Amino acid sequence: MIKHTMKALGVAAIALAVAACSEKADEPKEAIKIAVAGPFSGPLAQFGEMQISGAKKAVADLNAAGGLLERPVELVELDDVCEPKQATTVANQVVSAEISFVIGHLCSSSTLPASDVYEDAGVVMITPASTNPEITERGYEYVFRTVGRDDQQGPFAAGVVKSLAPTNVAVVHDKSAYGEGLASQVNENLKSMGVNVVMYEAITAGEADYSPLIAKLKAESIDLMFFGGYDPELAKIMRQGRDGGWTGQFVGGDGVSNNKIVEAAGEAADGLIATQPKSYDGEASNAALVAEFEALGVNASDTFVLPSYAAVMALSEAITAAGTADTAAVKDALRKQVFSTAVGNIQWDGKGDIVGGENTFAAYLWKKDGTAELKTF
Amino acid sequence: MADQFYLFIQQLFNGFTLGSAYALIAIGYTMVYGIIGMINFAHGEVYMISSYIGFIVIAALMMMGVDSAFLLITGAMIVAITLTSVYGFSIERVAYRPVRGQNRLIALISAIGMSIFLQNYVRVGQSSRDIAMPPLVEGGWTFGNPDGFEATLTYMRVVIWVITIAAMIALTLFVTRTKMGRACRACSEDLGMTNLLGINTNFIIALTFAIGAAMAAVAGVLLGTFYGVINPYVGFILGLKAFTAAVLGGIGSIPGAMLGGMLLGIAEAMTAGYLSAEYKDVVSFGLLILVLLFRPYGILGKPEVEKV
Amino acid sequence: MMRNPFVAALIPAVVFVLLALPILGIDLLNESLMLKIQAAPAADWMMIIIAAVAIFFIQLFRKPIDAGVTTFKEAVPSLNLKSYLVQPKVMRLLTIFLILALFLWPFLYESRSGLDISIKVLIYIMLGLGLNVVVGLAGLLDLGYVGFYAVGAYTYGLLNYYFGFSFWMALPIAGGMAALAGFLLGFPVLRLRGDYLAIVTLGFGEIIRILLNNLTSITGGPNGITGIDRPTLFGLEFNRKLRDGGWDTFHGFFGIEYDPIYRMIFIYLLALILVLLCIYVINRLQRMPIGRAWEALREDEIACRSLGMSRTMIKLSAFTIGATTAGFAGSFFAAYQGTISPESFVFIESAIILAIVVLGGMGSQVGVILAAIVLTVLPEVAREFSQFRMLMFGGLMVLMMIWRPQGFMPMTRPHIQLNSDKIQKETAQ
Question: Does residue C147 sit within a domain?
């Protein structure tokens, strides 16, 4: 009996205390809050950096111009470490804190479960990086993105592979929503283009030793390997591949296309070809913006900096057009007009995808000095 | 046909390298268990810390202009072994000595807490991202048919084997031939009696932790250089596998740890090479369960008599 | 030979600085494709200095600190409360009042994050109680408990995803599957001694996780299963929009506006009922012969065997009951989160649940509940120090083991206390 008492006391006390604490968090605030959710720690933190620097600059610019609807704009940074479970927790936190707008998430495997929460709670979510098609295929009204989809990147990447005229191709992925999604798209497209795909395999992300994979590549006489996944894994594969005597061509998607991969793989990364959303830093209309980013120490050519900036800017225009921060009105406003942004003109369709998204991908050749060159195939 | 043979040889090379790592780290687990009957969950993190120390030394030397791989690795080895031994000793002093003699679960929880603490300590002190080192030792021998399958044996792999074997021999000599080694063996047989006979058991226990840590440091520098990439989380899974290897070989037995480590490494490489890389961990644990079903004390383990 | 106390205090501080220097004091980084080091930011150096000074002073004042710790070790708070609440009427009233309070507070304080934490706490309480049976009562060191948790969660997840099973239909099946897993695990480990048992159970836990991670076509691989249905109130759904083929939504049926918090309150109440049920059942089991058999096994396995008790039955029953509880908790977790993925079921979760049991005091239900609350709420509350959150968590585990190894509420078996002070002290140990 005492045990019940004690237990009840304990739970009640803690629950009440917590409830009391969170009461304070539910007070109405003046500023319009925009949450940025992405990996700010962990192995993919460099992508989170791109995302947050774009968003921060956008919010700073907005506030410098007088804010939004005469209210200051506040950025709230939430870390999901690119894990589905953390992403759900972060999504719940966003809803608890009554934040109505989210720029994020970054990894498709985070965006998918988080968007369930946002749609249910009526929070507008714009992802500047997630390319998995399913995100916008579920009839959700509150979900948008400022990049293309993997069923557009896939055919593009397959085209790149085909133009390299390989004899035997291996397609490898890391089983993540993004990696496997992209790899399966590439695989199907390659097959329909008549390219000889000999291997379609999965690796486990986070492993240290990929020598069995390298041995397989050699044994099957593969001369080109496409990898659907992120740069930490491909860096190790490339390094161990060259070490193990494999001389074939590596091709990857946007998950590997950043200079961290050259840092991790060194010389082995030389010659990597990666597809990613086009980099708009070369556009004349962006020249001033790029210079401002450089003054802040941010490289505007990093994949997700400008899409993130564009997401915030487009959102702010929609809020202004709607005249209110009420998400039901904003989500409609986002579909009503064409936004002129740092990543070109964006018009969102009913699903939340960019109209004309198939033209937003490009291929880059990475060199061992850490720079990438735009390549046309 | 010949291609299959060379593929097999390649997997053997992979297996021996992996096995050396497991063996070196497993020694730490088995020595500690043998002497005080506790599973040192924090040992994997000790390995990880030694990798970081190794990287730091190599970075410092490279910044000072040292180019020779030999000097870089040797320097890293010396500093890493020294500092990591002090880590091992300190961890024992702080987290395990106060709970010695009590229920083994308490020591276990303390060890798990220590493991979490160390992992995050490194994550706070460094960052959670991967840190990479340019390959120091490049090149190797190739065997086989250039048109078919070529097995590559990199020099670095040979370095790993040679140093591992040297470390094992050194440890065995220490344990069997020196007076302190004899004290270690005595302590693992019967701690109480050894204490009564006048040996400073506290010192011997501390020494055991330090030696285990030193072995892990050897592995840390070698593997860090070999794979070239480290982050605060590499210690955990490696520690788990090494612990499995130690149990496989018979926990408490040093030759058992070496044997278990090698066996596990080769089993993993073969599974990854011929079956599927995804299930190699399943096979490792499955192998462990199988062995324990028929030999409940591990391959070289001695059945312990429980006294009533 | 008297050692100068200052030197004795200085040595640990110096050793600490030596150890912390490479990790905290130096930053390793990749810059322009090279491996470099640089001095860490001033904040890190401050940490080293502060910690070193703290260590120096702690070592200097070792004796008084140790005395304080010993009193903390021996204080058993349950004694005080027992004497106050010894009258049955008071106890019963208090219990009813508190249980009522637990049921009613969400309606008064509609706080989403409070409910979120409470549900998490209740899930961990369930897990802690289940593992308590295996580790605390039967003394079997299970390091793979999270595997049963995963079996329960994925059973519901898969049944829902492929066959549209509702939560209520899947709940008993999930418990059953987990029980089966526990039963199957029990067989190979029958012969194994303490630590071998630990590693084998750990292996099982990992095998289950790896299988879930790799069988992507069935289990969804690393992305897991999303869109799992939430529990319904006799068919009334707590969603914004009605699913195809559903009867009606909760807010539609009652004619009120949709608010996500209704679902949370509903799930919270369900969890509360489940937990209370668990407590009751396990409490009963503890007092039955099977419970006594578990404790006998924990105390002395050889004596058990010599008394003719079936070791097999005792171990298997402990595993099975523990596993079933985890299975229920798992299916509940899946229903609450709506998405499950293998990374929720990693070894560290087993370690945390084990810590809950040991921290609470092995075998003590109340202690386990308290420990579950502490170990769940603390990391949430410390989210602001997100950097140091896990660091403090690990440190706290170590400190608790050093300072109070018997746990918050060490389990006391029913016993008679004679009024003499001295005898009271002895029996309390």
Answer: yes
Contact A262 C223 (CB under 8 A): no
Which long-range contacts (C-beta less than 8 Å, at least 24 apart) are formed by B267-270? B267/B15, B268/B15, B268/B18, B268/B241, B269/A211, B269/A212, B269/B11, B269/B12, B269/B14, B269/B15, B269/B18, B270/B11, B270/B15
Q: What pLDDT is recorded for position A4?
A: 52
In chain A, domain spans: 32-147+304-346, 151-277+362-375
Q: Where do we find the tokens 């106060």? A: B98
Looking at the domain that runs over A151-277+362-375, which CATH code has it been given? Answer: 3.40.50.2300
Cβ neighbours, 10 Å, residue C215: 12
Domain assignment of residue C286, yes or no:
yes
H or E segment to which residue C52 belongs: helix C42-60
Say how far apart CA A243 and CA A240 lie, in whole Å.
5
Domain count, chain C: 2
Residue C98, domain member (yes or no): no
**Closest C-alpha among A221, A256, A254, A255 to residue A238:** A256
Query: Three-state DSSP class for B41?
Result: coil
Question: d(Cα A170, Cα A182) in Å, to the nearest integer?
Answer: 14
Just give the CATH number of A32-147+304-346.
3.40.50.2300
β-pairing, A224-228 vs C248-249, is unpaired
Q: Please list the alpha-helical segments (H only) found in chain A.
A: 2-25, 45-64, 84-96, 108-121, 150-163, 177-193, 211-219, 231-243, 260-265, 287-295, 305-322, 327-336
SS3 B144: strand
Range of the domain at C210: 110-403
Residue C312 burial (10 A CB sphere; 0-12, 13-18, 19+): exposed
Instruction: Return the DSSP state at A170.
Output: E
pLDDT classification of B186: cutoffs 50, 70, 90: confident
CA distance B126 to chain A (A): 12
Query: What crossing angle do the helices spanning C194-214 and C167-186 adopt, rounded to 10°?
Result: 140
**CATH number of the domain to which C251 belongs:** 1.10.3470
| C308/chain A closest Cα distance in angstroms | 33
Distance CA A17, CA C355 (A): 24
- pLDDT at residue C147 in the model: 93
Subunits adjacent to chain A (3 or more Cβ pairs under 8 Å): B, C
Query: In the structure encoding, which two tokens stand for residue A150, read together?
Result: 């993997």
Q: Is A205 in CB contact (< 8 Å) with chain B?
A: no
Nearest CA in chain C to A93: C113
Q: Is residue C86 part of a domain?
A: no
Quote the ipTM score.
0.84
Determine the length of chain A.
377
pLDDT digits (tens, 9 = 90+) for B52-108: 999 999 988 888 888 888 888 899 999 999 999 999 999 998 889 888 877 778 888
Helix (H) or strand (E) holding A228: strand A224-228
* Shared-domain flag, residues C31 and C180: no
Each residue of B10-26: pLDDT tens digit?
A: 888 889 999 999 999 99
Do residue C354 and residue C216 come from a single domain?
yes
Does C343 sit within 8 Å of A12, measured CB to CB?
no
Do residues C150 and C44 share a domain? no
State whether C263 and C357 are in the same domain: yes
CA distance C151 to C170: 12
- CA angle at residue A16 from A12 to A17, to 5 degrees? 120
CB burial of A3-21 (b: ≥16 within 10 Å; e: otherwise) equals bbbbbbbbbbebbbebbee
Q: CA of C141: which chain B residue's CA is closest?
A: B105
In whole angstroms, what is the distance from residue B209 CA to residue B247 CA?
A: 18
Q: Which amino acid is at C186?
A: G
Encoded tokens for C175: 């418990």
Q: Chains meeting B at 3+ CB pairs closer than 8 A?
A: A, C
